[in-house]
Amino acid sequence: MSQLKTIQDERSPLWLPRLAAHGGPRFLQIADALQAAVVEGSLKPGDRLPPQRQLAAQLDVDLTTITRAYDEARRRNLLEGRGARGTYVAAPKVEFTSVLDLSMNTPPPPDGVDFDDMLRQGLSQVLMRADNDLLMTYHLGGGSDADRKAGAQWLAPMYGQLDPRHVVVCPGAQAAIAASILALTQPGDVILAEPTTYPGLRAAATQFGRHLIAVEADKHGMVPDMLEEACRRHKPGLVYLNPTLQNPTAATMPERRRRELAGIAQRCDVRIVEDDPYWLLADAPPPPIATFAPERVIYISTLSKCLTPGLRVAFVLVRDPHERERFLVALRSFALMVAPLTAALATQWILDGSADRLLEGVRKEACLRHRMARDIMAGRYSGAGDGLHVWLELPAYWTSSQLARAADGEGIAVTPAEVFATGDGSVNAIRISLGSIKDRERLRAGLQRLSQLLAGRPESFSAAVV
């Protein structure tokens, strides 16, 4: 029992951790000790834990520390409350699903960042400083002055100092894409995109009656000559690009290509929607396309891929005031505002530095997971070592749909290439997302099972019929 000691009194044994002066937050030390005791069997399901005040006195800590420790232990499914009867060690939860989700692009939980504590402190600061009535009423779209200031600070690594009036706060990147389509195009207009692109674009374009046409791309992204030809032929309403750690290929467009595409937008009088959710996760990315043609580009940066999807906050840079008003009118037609409470939380985190700490933790964890994927996938891995996903081209004996079905039979969810196809065809590949499985060892197990699957052939993995 490395972390616990037993103290006997006249009533019952009491399990106490040894609190280390430099062992991190005390409430986490207590929660870790409880978890260790459950794992090694020193504490068993149904054992009653001491009252919080009694434990606080035994450990010589304040009651709040014990409350936070018990809350953390409940979050880990270690404890359960039984009302006036007290707190007990919980029975292990039965896992009804063994699916390992490699299909959803979400930020991985960063090691060493106490997200629950950050959330509690952030909300506490918001509630202490804000007018609570304003947090629960209607707001005009576009964000408050403080929200736009936070947006300008979030965009500073890409652009330097910005005028906050040029920033619009949106309820997520998908809403920003939809508002851009409504503001910049008419029903029946053409939208140009790469042959393999974000599925949310196709969903919005189809819903609004726009035509999505693929423009040829190479390893550096959309081919400039092909874009110029398509602009002259189709007179598009806009061009959609995702140039940094592109979803799904994970390719980053070099600066020269960005300049070329910006120049074409200027010559052909076409708007670009630059959806750039992964720029802050990339290792030394080039400047955004919007820096080369600011009057031609609407730039979207969401917090969902860098911090957490639950905030539902994206910052959109629209420099032209008339275009910004059209964008806001379009946005209000289906999303009146960002939820004020989550917008205020995002603003609080950005202005007090919490967002930067969380972002750095996500970056480090993502890099660790890429190294894991590279080691397990060996010669098949072709990522750059950053971002949230890997684009895995398949051997000829697998099709992406075959592999996705076979992986599903093995309890693994992946995304086949056809989901991202803009045109009629698609490459033979799958996207593997590295952040959606919280536990690193479960991710390792999923990648190993997928690697074993790839080593075989489809005939070896026929599904059972029952």
From TrEMBL:
One Pfam family cited in the UniProt record for this chain: Aminotran_1_2
HTH gntR-type domain segment(s): 24-92
SUPFAM superfamilies, per the entry: PLP-dependent transferases (SSF53383), Winged helix' DNA-binding domain (SSF46785)
Keywords associated with the record: Aminotransferase, DNA-binding, Pyridoxal phosphate, Transcription, Transcription regulation, Transferase
Gene Ontology MF: a single term: transaminase activity
InterPro entries reported for this sequence: Aminotransferase_I/II_large (IPR004839), HTH_trans_reg/aminotransferase (IPR051446), PyrdxlP-dep_Trfase (IPR015424), PyrdxlP-dep_Trfase_major (IPR015421), Tscrpt_reg_HTH_GntR (IPR000524), WH-like_DNA-bd_sf (IPR036388), WH_DNA-bd_sf (IPR036390)
Record-stated family: In the C-terminal section; belongs to the class-I pyridoxal-phosphate-dependent aminotransferase family.
Protein name: PLP-dependent aminotransferase family protein
Organism listed in the record: Massilia pinisoli
